[in-house]
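User: Could you write out the 3D structure of this protein bound to iron/sulfur cluster? I've included everything you need below.
Assistant: Certainly. Input first, then the structure.
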Amino acid sequence: MLPTGRRLENLLRQQADVLHVGAANFCWFTDPSKALCLRLAAATTATRPLIGMCDSARCPQATHHREHRPVWADTADTISQFLGNPRVPPAEKRRLHHEHERAARVLDEIDAATASRGAHDDEPETHPR
Ligand code: SF4
């Protein structure tokens, strides 16, 4: 078995010129026309992702891996706390509910991929829909 760094390097070579490593995902940026951050910013000629606008749960350029699970679990927990707060306005709760659904979906996909692939496989585990 290859170490994680080597596997990622090989994936990088096969998939993209540059792998952008985020706290919650890997951004492959193989097709800028499909990059959600660029579409949201109307920056269609950009040659790099806009990490500050990353919404990897909705972007087809992202993959989520086992090591990203804690970030998504923290996100889901934090959103749950806001959803339970009576001071949060209903409109904001509706928005948070959608965010919570996305975080829960990513967690479910990571868990399903991890269960089906074994503990040491570093292939991309999830792709946003
Ligand atoms: S939204 Fe995130 S994953 Fe998608 S291209 Fe932008 S930085 Fe990469």
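Residues 4-117 form one domain.
User: Perfect, thank you.
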